[in-house]
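debug: dumping io for the single-chain case to check the tokenizer round-trip. Nothing else runs in this session.
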Amino acid sequence: MDPEDLTDSEEDEDDDMMFFILPTLYLVSTGSEEPCHTSKFSGAEWICEVLEDDRGEGYAKFRMEPQILQKFSDFLRSKNLLRNTRGVSVEEQIGMFIYMLSRNASFQKMSDRFEHSRETIHRHIKACFDAITSLTDEFVKHPSTETHWKISSDPQYGPYFKNCIGAIDGVHVPITISDYEAAPYRNIEDSLSQNVMLACDFDLNFVHVCSGHEGSASDAAVLYAAVECGFEVPSNKYYLVDRGYANTPSFLAPYREAAYHIEEQSNCQPSDYKELFNLRHSKLRNNIKRATALLKMRFPILNVATFYQIETQAKIPAAAVVLHNIMQGQRDDDDDDDGWAFNQAMPVSSRRTVVLPSGDDAYGNDVEELNNQCSMGDALRDYIAKKMWTDYERNRR
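debug: decoded output
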């Protein structure tokens, strides 16, 4: 692609620039940083260099393979969600956006790297946020109701979890917010965060994201808010959840009184049906932990507080999830799970490290609508666990 081969259309002049103007604190903190533009290429030329790279080094620059970046740019252009502007192609706009998410790059660093003014960077990042989050329904879809092969092919899980379609977890993402608005976002670790609900299938694709809720909200409360906003579980199907959620027919939790994680059980030898259920539940539910770890590896911006307005900070997890699913969908069939991504380091801009909750330790009975379903959830769990234990005992003889 020739960097000069751009449509000579006028850029919009009515963008709300204050939407992306950083606080003075941020400008002061980044003003002393060394320019990061060490390449001999301009931003447009650098994008061309990445897209035409035949040495396999493109992924390390963006956390996205060059061919996926090109396909996604073509897709956005065809949907008229982004367009070439005078001096900035769609490819470069997406490149800026991925660069920001994958490196937690400041606007100063992006300005240095792409050789555009901060005003231009602001405008195109805003356009990318709007375009990518508008694709949530298209790329973050409900999972299949068919039993996944990872369950049906493994005697530990099938047929016991045949109606399981995925797993859910709550993830805290650091935020920056004014002091007078901060109280609801202060979590149990006394840091500021938003509590994001993530649901995934067993291919490590995210099937739902609910972001923007205060860090003080419980995982169960965020889940119920997602249900109230349209998150549906098909009849007779369920997701696996941890002890921070109510145990219901749609959201199957482990037994509270029994050891749960593998390391909690002596030699992984369960002593009763509750421990056996918890052991296998934990191993199967580990898919959401792997998917979340992969998401954060690809987009380290989720590990630090940013300086956007709170409405924009709430969009960051949703945008990352959309891009994650697009990248997952373009992977080759012979890729070995997610190991390839974990073997490549990505330098990121440092920010103040904060301590975040890893999830609720126990369900606090704070959602009455879920409490009313617990007896049915307990009956389903007992049925699965006791059948599992009967077969386990028979096979041990």
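debug: round-trip ok. The beta strands are 164-174, 193-200, 206-214, 238-240, 251-252.
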